[in-house]
């Protein structure tokens, strides 16, 4: 599991990419999906997820749709037009950052190299 | 999950300082989903499942979540307010400094005028004025002295005017930018402290 500090900067691209791929998702679904896709290495804490989701909504990247599930309200988050435009730059930035980190820290060496 | 159980979750959040309705709705759904899964997996009752869900999902001090949300959603707004406040504070300080400079120059010039008049008067009286000079002649002489220093006196008055104007501008800028920022930030701090307590 990666530390909270490492995940802090990439939470926004993760949310944007996920919603771009899946259309609409609710908070619990996002946490579980990221956990499953990363084989438990990326655990998004609720304390980070909801402030980020609300901030992205306020900035106009996401919009919400409230649906009644039993006797409680479930909010689905989906990308707005502005959000869709932000996906590619956000993902590219992470990929570039990943490449820079590889040059900084070096790629893991195999036993034969 | 029953209405009463949903209300229990909602009340728990409210008791822990949550006031943002949108965030409460999100967390109620999140906790309720987790509780349902725990109950399905272990067969635990609502209270046990709720305790496990709280321990698993919420930070040690749950209201931190709302504080984080507040900080995150007002970050840009706060940076902009800070920028305006500091630029205003800087301009106000410059205006005040220049105003003081002009006031000093004005008082210096005014002082020079009075010194010059005294010097000219004593020189003139000692060298030119005879004892039998009439009051009209003396009055003419004084007028001449005043004309000789009037330009400096006018300059002094202008400088005082500029100084006063800059002082007013400085106070206006300060009271419309930096001062409201100070009140606003103290208000926000006290609100966060209230939330934290």
Automatic annotation (TrEMBL), chain A:
GO terms for molecular function: DNA binding. Keywords: DNA-binding. The keyword Lipid metabolism does not apply. Residues 15-87 form the Transcription regulator PadR N-terminal domain. InterPro entries: Metal_resp_DNA-bind_regulator (IPR052509), Tscrpt_reg_PadR_N (IPR005149), WH-like_DNA-bd_sf (IPR036388), WH_DNA-bd_sf (IPR036390). Pfam families: PadR. This is DNA-binding transcriptional regulator, PadR family. It comes from Roseivirga pacifica.
From TrEMBL, chain B:
It comes from the Bacteria. The keyword Membrane applies. The chain crosses the membrane at residues 84-107, 161-181. Keywords: Membrane, Transmembrane, Transmembrane helix. This is Uncharacterized protein. It comes from Roseivirga pacifica.
